[in-house]
Amino acid sequence: MSMPGVASLAGIATRMVLRRDDWDDAGEQEENTNCVKAIPGPNGHVPIDACNSYYNFDPRFEPAVAVAILFGIFTLIHLVLGIAYRKKFSWVLIMGATWETVSFAIHALGSKDQQNIAYASSAQILFLLAPLWINAFVYMTFTRAAWYYHYPPEAQRRLLGVPITAITKIFVWADVLAFIIQGVGGSMASPGSGGDIVQKGLKVYLVGMGIQQFFIVVFLMFMIHFHLRQRKGYGYVDKGSDWRPLIYALYATLACITIRIIYRIAEFAGGITPSNPIPFHEEYSYALDVFPMMLALLILAIWHPGRFLKGRDSEIPKKMSRKQRKAERKSRDLP
Asked: Which positions carry the signal peptide feature in this UniProt record (predicted)?
């Protein structure tokens, strides 16, 4: 998605955002009325337009506990797999699963104490940012697969003219950039923030989502290029494992992440108003954010990189030897 498109969506969201802060104290804008502090009901719930409302819906305890348990199971599974296959970079995926687990554990607590702004804010921020860890893991896995299965000598291992050793750095740093922007936006738009701050936060968060999806699309170009080369017989055939299942698993994981991004953009682009049902029904986030991320973790557990990438050559060397650098410079001069 282009940056102008993201800016347009952000503009729509910020024009329609529901404001709960007591912003009309001076009475300058007579067409608007102050919000009021409602008396909390069971579990601290108040109407969504009250000043002391920190949720757009009445969060339910049971689904939050169930989801926290399931994400906790996935966290444990990936911890075991990472150790068993000796894949140190699995810590990135484990971190994403852990953030999801903690997010819903806090969300469960918040459902029983809805006037606790710390619960509402921390659960939301962790929930919004956790998928970026999974995204980074896909980047790291693919570049290792491309290195492992690529046919030319180390100094000539390139995709679309870019050294494979550089692809990880480019896209992981892009993911870090999206992480920072979304983190800032999510913090600004967290429960309890004033209306103006929420508007700016939504705009920043949408830009971060757009950046994430833009780099996913660019990354897919490298994956498809690798895929087509492998089909033409450029890859090794004596690795002891087929590259296809792992690559298809990564495609599927990126599809899950993209579904989640589209949902989040639609959630905010429609405006946080009663005319847009998405932000006010918890079921949407379970179906279009939680489920895709669980599916991604399941896919990466079944087709774990450790099953396919084995041995010393499955890790990209941090530094190339002088001989390798000389060979790489020579390969650049070849017609």
From this structure: none
